Amino acid sequence: MNFCPPSLFRYLYVVIAFRIFLLPVLAAGLLSGGCGRPAEGEARFVRFSYEGRDARFDRPVDPRNEYFNPVLAGFHPDPSICRKGDDYFLVNSSFTFWPSIPIFHSRDLVHWRPLGFVLDRAEQAPLDSLRFNRGIYAPDISYNPHNDTFYVVNTCVDGIENFVVKCRDPFAGGWSDPIRLPEVEGIDPSLFFDDDGKAYLLHNGMPPGGRRWNSHRALWLREYDTATDRVVGEPVLLLDGGIDFAAHPEWLEGPHLYKHDGEYVLLAAEGGTYEGHAQVALKSRHAKGPYRPCAHNPILTQRDLPADRPDKVTSTGHADMVETPSGEWYAVFLGCRPYADDFYNTGRETFLLPVTWADGDPVILPAGEAVPTVVRKEGLEPDAALRPETGNFAWSTDFAAGLDDRWLRLRTPRSVWYRTDRRGLTLRDNGHTIDEVAAPAFVGCRQQHTDFAVETEMICRPTEGQFAGLALFQNERHHLLFGKVRRDGAEAVIVVRVEKEPETLAFIPLPPADAKKSLRLRVRGEGGSCDLEYAAGDGAFVVAAQGVDTRNLSTHTARGFNGVMIGPYTGRLAAAVFARGK
Predict the structure, then answer these.
(1) Strands of 302-417, DSSP E
(2) 156 has which bridge partners?
(3) Phi, psi of 293 (to 5 degrees)
(4) Backbone dihedral angles phi then psi of residue 357, each to the nearest 5 degrees
(5) What are the pLDDT digits (tens) for 517-558?
(6) Which of 546, 459, 558 is nearest to 499 (CA)?
(7) Phi, psi angle pair for 573, to nearest 5°
């Protein structure tokens, strides 16, 4: 029996086919200016690839029993770690990058799977107008077994200052809106949950009676009420200045509290976060002290080692420890991998080492020992499906699946200036430039290797004075631009190196026929220099600039706390760019 006439079937078939197949295609064409080309003022990136080529990783390791340091390569500073059962969770600083506070999960402390971000809603982290090295500092993650809740306590410098967010399940996300802690001054807060149910908040702050020297700081403790998420009672001084007050230690910070064999162990960083960085430890019978220095301080530093050592790691410190279910202890800490002197573009990275206990005192690395690149650890759980975060690796994307957690933006987004679809990533000039303290049309991934190669292909129709291409971004005053620009009605390939002031290293007019084609861009970095090449359509690559000095992208030059971010960018170039250089 026919319930529907054939004509109705034909009508339904046409409607369904139109909605499933033709409507998305037409919509994509309209959104991108039609005819497969982006609208004027837009830049479409149809693919992007990254490859790491560091010599220190060109050695065999047994993935079941050995791992590479760092475990999180490239710009993963100030690691903090906690455990619930067999699951470990780790977070890092993110400063003014968005989304904020990356969070990772592991079962073996070595292989880390990204879970997204703790702060991923605009109302959680208003980072507008904050300078590049302000914003989200040194988050601390902890697990409270008494109420089965995870906490991240943090400082947003020059923003909402100290606050806490919490959730029940880091796998599901949904962290709370920030709960401000106005009574807590200073930076680097952390939480400790004692066996008896009491909770304590530690933080860096001003010393009693004021500073005796410029970098003079103190560590304080407050009781924390988990029912109201407020500190209670009076602050208790844990440590003033550092281990040796008479030596005027620099920047005492990053406190964490633990319990080991019935005693309280206090860890802190001192010496500043650059080459003099070190980790110290103290102990007490009571959470509120008094604390006595351990016998083997500093328990981690690289500041006294020969400068010419192989596979050099510097600036180690800002450590956090975790106990495994079997009673072993490990420490995560930040370190840097310089390519010459103390130049490094990869930023502060996350390292992992076992902790030994000498007469009850923790030691992360004995005095005089260098941080090893390869470390032995039994019972590792390599997962072929897990993307690598260390060693030499390569990856690529056509952006069809959107922007995953590799891609960060600058500051809290307040408008929509990008889209992803089957054609790629399309950026629209949003009126802000990468030189401003603003949120430009830029998305970047971390430079995770000293030696690397990046390649992208883009289609763009820039307006007068508009740039579209790749940005290697350290901060607003230290970056490198490589791409296409329209000037006086014609299009050209341009290379601009910025070290406080812009310098145009190459300006190569494109023939009209090539200007209509896609443009492929290739960057090959090695230490403190890089080669830049371009190709129109499927043509051969041509050198745009060779041996470009990229030490302007190093933390040594630019200062601050970030590593280099590399990715697509579009925005207008200042007139000064065309007036300088070649």
Answers:
(1) 314-323, 329-336, 349-358, 361-363, 374-376, 394-397, 409-410
(2) 136, 161
(3) -60, 145
(4) -120, 115
(5) 999 999 999 999 999 999 999 999 999 999 999 999 999 999
(6) 558
(7) -95, 140
Q: Where are the domains of the chain?
A: 13-51+393-579, 69-376
Three-state secondary structure along 153-171? EEEEECCCEEEEEEECCCC
The answer to whether residue 30 scores a pLDDT higher than 80 is no
User: Which residue(s) pair with 395 in the sheet?
Assistant: 50
| Annotated active-site residue in 54, 188, 253, 455 | 253
555's tokens: 């933390």
Q: Taking 90 as the threshold, does the pLDDT of residue 27 lie above it?
A: no
Of 345, 389, 247, 378, give the one whose Cα is nearest residue 558: 345
Q: Do domains 13-51+393-579 and 69-376 have the same CATH topology?
A: no
Out of 3.30.2160.10, 2.60.120.200, 1.10.1040.10, 1.10.3210.10, the CATH code matching 13-51+393-579 is 2.60.120.200
Burial 443-478 (b: 16+ CB within 10 A, else e): bbbbbbbbbbbbbbbbbbbbeebbbbbbbbbbbbeb
Alpha-carbon gap, residue 280 to 309, rounded angstroms: 24
HSE value, Cβ hemisphere, 13 Å, CA-based, for 34? 0
- Residue 18 clears pLDDT 70, i.e. is over it: no
Terminal C-alpha separation, the chain: 81
pLDDT band at residue 580 using 50, 70 and 90 as cut-offs: low
At the topology level, CATH places domain 69-376 in Tachylectin-2; Chain A (2.115.10)
Which residue blocks in 475-541 are alpha helix, DSSP H? Answer: 512-515
Cα–Cα distance, 491 to 582 (Å, whole number): 16
- Per the residue annotation, which of 78, 361, 389, 476 is the catalytic one? 78
Per cent of the chain over pLDDT 90 is 88
389 catalytic, yes or no? no
The number of residues making up the chain comes to 582
Cis? peptide before 182, omega within 30° of 0: no
d(CA 184, CA 555): 30
Asked if residues 538 and 475 have their Cβ atoms less than 8 Å apart, the reply is: no
- The residue type at 310: P
With vertex at residue 129, the alpha carbon angle to CA 127 and CA 133, rounded to the nearest 5 degrees, is: 70
Catalytic residue check, 148: no
d(CA 305, CA 296): 17
- Predicted model pTM: 0.92
Contact 35, 29 (CB under 8 A): yes
